[in-house]
Fold these 2 entries.
Entry 1:
Amino acid sequence: ETGVTQTPRHLVMGMTNKKSLKCEQHLGHNAMYWYKQSAKKPLELMFVYNFKEQTENNSVPSRFSPECPNSSHLFLHLHTLQPEDSALYLCASSLDRGAEAFFGQGTRLTVV
Amino acid sequence: GNSVTQMEGPVTLSEEAFLTINCTYTATGYPSLFWYVQYPGEGLQLLLKATKADDKGSNKGFEATYRKETTSFHLEKGSVQVSDSAVYFCALSSSRNAGGTSYGKLTFGQGTILTVHP
């Protein structure tokens, strides 16, 4: 248990669905991250939030929409996804940007 | 920009064998270095870290030494167990500039799959 909780753990969605991934941390961290982990590919940083402000968006398609209502919660809203978006989505937090990160267990997303 | 290169996997060993997973990096500033481990079906867990040159990070029998002269942070374990089977990620963060203000982000290597057989 790292202190970062992601829900749901598994999600199957159709290409026309809208769903959201949730991440929660009560570690007092100020930075939160979304990563995508696909088979046979390096870990991809998607979004960075620092003190609730988005500081980085690594050319992520608009069908992925992050939201950070407060420093403890991070969401990833999904709509009209493609099958190639199927992956493990990992949330992480750190005390500040660049400090050691604590990861959640991830959400295994399958787009059908 | 920052980058991390890990040795290609997968690595397959017998129980009690010696493990080395190579990691080299390029970075600006004063990076901190990390090894993360990912067990099947789980997220990444911090295994060990080193924040300055010549520091040695250690945990659960694993060790890595921050070598600035060779820009390396190789992971070693003297005697692996079946339970060490996992994916190992080397990472760096240029977390602090000369003024001590954190500004960086984590950069990960591609991961190395380790399988240990009984």
Entry 2:
Amino acid sequence: DAMVIQNPRYQVTQFGKPVTLSCSQTLNHNVMYWYQQKSSQAPKLLFHYYDKDFNNEADTPDNFQSRRPNTSFCFLDIRSPGLGDAAMYLCATSRDRGRDEKLFFGSGTQLSVL
Amino acid sequence: KQEVTQIPAALSVPEGENLVLNCSFTDSAIYNLQWFRQDPGKGLTSLLLIQSSQREQTSGRLNASLDKSSGRSTLYIAASQPGDSATYLCAVELWRSQGNLIFGKGTKLSVKP
């Protein structure tokens, strides 16, 4: 049974058109993460929520925003997608934050920007 | 700045062979090191987590070792099977981070029947 669910599996958007990716979890974990993985590259953390606290990575562009309305759901908003934002976006959760916590990943959303 | 490197980028072996994947990192101040598996177009599955105080972890046919002082980890896969074909990524969590894993680019493994 899927524990971290990402929708949609594939998303196509136009240059500059806002897009939202969604993630839900059945694990009741406190922490939810969003990673960006470009083709043949390492996943890179964009930001994470520790409960309701939003933590942005220093080099995450302002174009990327996130919302977590409740424990189960987290959204990634790209306000004005550029061609360089085409990537796989991975959502992950962990029970707590800090050392030795395993991350559980969803299957990802592959974003194309036309 | 922590950098994680995985060599080789791709590896092809015949079924049944034992193999080793390599991971190196530049900053030894880590909480832990994790190995993940990623199937094409899919998310990541955690395979093994080695705490900074440990030297190895085993799960089935997988064995991961950690040498913090030299900044190296290896993932040993015994008796490889075609179902092992995937990309294997290692990631480190730094002492000063809050859950931010630094990933390598991965090694793409192909096991031929």
